[in-house]
Write the structure tokens for this entry.
Amino acid sequence: MSDALLAVRNLSVQFTTYGQTNQVLKGVSLDVPARSQIALVGESGSGKTVTMRAIMGLLRTPPAKVTSGEIFYDGHDLLTMPTKERLKLRGTAMSMVFQDPMSSLNPVFTIADQMGTILKYADRRLGRSRGNRERMARVHEVLGQVRMRDPERVSRSYPIMLSGGMRQRVLIAMALLSEPKLLIADEPGTALDVTTQAQILKLLKDLVEERGLALLMITHNLGVVRETSNYVYVMNKGVVVEHRPTADLFEAPRDDYTRALIAAVPRLTGGTSFGKAGAAA
Amino acid sequence: MEFLLFLVRRILWSILVLVGLSIVIFAIARVVPGDPARMALGPTATAQQVADLQEKLGLNKPIVEQYGMFIAGLSQGDLGRSLLTERPVNDDIRETFGATFELVLATITLAFVFGVPLGVAAARWKDKWPDTLVRILAIFSAVTPSFFAALLLQILAGYVLHILPTTGRLPHNMEFVASVTGLLTVDSLLAGRLDVFGEALRYLLLPATALALATMGQIARITRSSMIDVSSQDYIEASRAFGVPEPIRVFKYMLRPSFVPPLTILGLEFASLIGNAFVVELVFAWPGIASYGIRTILQKDLNAVMGVVMVSGVFFVLVNLVIDVLVGFVDPRVRIRGSR
């Protein structure tokens, strides 16, 4: 066991569908120390999303089954702790920023309603309570923190009335409501245009640094890795193939798969190679 | 504000539909073969008598002028006189419509009160025994003709178990006139007559159940599939990740977006509901618009037939208007887009 805020040890997960069993994670280990910015990168199907869902306790069992390993949060194994204790952490101590701002907000409730509900039950799990007015004050405060210009108007809106970038900010605000220590971001902004995505990533990075949060960024995009992390885990076919400081990785990738991944990034000047030093993005 | 715009648009559309309906009804009534005047007077009447009645009813005027007269009467709420009862069609319909309206309202209430929870249960325990049970029930209720369900219920509850009355709206010895809304249950409460209210409910239960079965099955099926569809949406997964407890997720976050398809289906099903009501009313001797409508159709009582069809049509359009407003209320996307 390490003293990292989040430590995944030798995690193996298999999925059984229609009588067929697939080993999706094969002994994955990773560390997210407090206040660190870690990236988990890999192509679709590499197992990064399953890892994330296992950490958040969102795997549906069945079809999924954790066959071995531990997930330590603050020294406690999430996989063996009582469900009640586990639920206390989800959405509060560790929280998630969702990927698709268009589909991750409930279309028929206002932002205030949705954020208020999350806060209400987070408070209840933590044995706190606050009145409706205080709850709304907190909602407006967090919306302001994600650089929303008019938090009160935004909170009264339905998702359809907001732009993609604004919705993504709302999703970040939702994750920050209960002041988590660990933020897991699932490719935020992938569904947005590049400029907006850059703004969102910048905002996320600023927020994480301001508050001293730990960030686990799940992504397939090496550009995002470079922007948002200082340590990176590369996954392929359910295995962590390489992990090292982000700068080192771009400098001299060791694993064949990592090299292929870097080579696959398109360049503005034509061709596909990042070049030796990976200078221009 | 956006809701008001949405409402105004819907109302304007409804008016347009009603104008179209009036033209269609009028055209159909005038192209059916046979002479209403001759039918009304019987085979012994002389040609002169028939011609006089035709003159009186305006049947010998040009068709456009006849339509003008029909619309002029309609706009003042006057549907003409019934040849059969020799009373204004208005009075006949007013007396019978309340009973039908009450029956249909009770039917919709039953269909929703039972259909939606059944659908939710089926979706919650998908592919488990509650789901199988609900699906079998839904299929059976959908394929059972309502007159058959009516007869079964009548025999079972009325003649075998003797727990519910089988015909009419109230016991013969109970004197009560529903004069305010035409709905016995509402008017008896307004008058403070709890005894009448209780009896009215007892009499209402069987016909409403018979009529509700098919619609309930449909609503359960639609609710089930739309709940399952919504449950796989990202926003439900997100609320799970944020630690929103399951009851809130199911009954708030999933149920509200899932409510739109069953509501819409109800609007579409409503026409067949009115059609079925005609049959069910006959089985239970329910003094509604159906028995009146059928008698007038058989007698070729044109004014009355047009009145019955027009009133049913207006009813249909109004119910759909209400449903549209409800859908707009449930789903902000509809009213925000609908106001543009």
In short: Chain B has 15 helices and no strands. The interface with chain A takes residues 233-245, 248, 252-253, 256-257, 330-333, 336 of chain B (CB under 8 Å). The first helix of chain B runs from residue 2 to 31. The mean pLDDT of chain B is 84.
